[in-house]
Hints:
The protein is an alpha/beta fold. It has ten helices and ten strands. β6, α3 and β7 form a beta-alpha-beta unit. α1 packs parallel to α6 and α7 packs antiparallel against α8.
Amino acid sequence: MSKIIEHLEEATIRFAGDSGDGMQLVGTQFSDTSGFAGNEVNTFPDYPSEIRAPEGTLYGVSAFQVHFGKEHIHTTGDYIDVLVAMNASSLKVNKANLKAGGIILANTEGFDARNLQLAGYASNPLEDGSLADYTVYAINMAREIKSQLSDIDVPAKTLAKTKNIFALGITYWLFNRPLEPTVEWINRKFKGKDDVILANVHVLRAGWNFAEKHDLFQKQYVIDKSPLPRGRYRSLTGNQGVALGLVVAARKARLPLFLGSYPITPATEILQAISGYKKYGVRHLQAEDE
């Protein structure tokens, strides 16, 4: 069936779920892919407030927000156009920031009785009409993955870890993002692990194809390329920027730079980035404890 194509100037998407659901990973991939597609991008990784928070709890929600558009993208986005909710708590925590009429892509497996109780829901919001002001796509992602990849010889345990990639594939279709950058990343990331590469590439494409073929998805959004001058552009995270800023400041001040740090999200990335500037006299230490 034919789909409705709507052009947008900008949009904000937020991937949310448990720490182990891979939201930081797919958020980063969506961000990088949007850059490859020629859009301006600004991101906000949102980590759980507790270390090793219990699965399914409100304070264990991990999220990654991407604000992308044709031009003038200077913030991470005030309100969300699309919320990917892998469980009930991720919906509960982020719903207040979702625009009226926004889209919720929900993994129904994460809305069972246990998850609803942990999120403090008396009834299932996917079924009780409380989300009537939003466009809701409620999908049993594990079941769809199993159905679409029934002819692929990959261990069930490996497939069980790809629900985030299935959701990513759907969002790529929703915003007409190219699959190739993520396929190339999967091949680099999991080089030598053929089963993992096979599973993730097929699941990514399965997510795209599910949205393309399913009557549930009536509209696809297109954001044109930014009118940027030709040249080489760099993707820089806030943590990488902190590391670079420290190195530059130390050089300009003609002072030695030392960073002693305990590796923990998100500070680990600063320590990793700093370690790459040894040729500028930077010294670092990974501490054994806090």
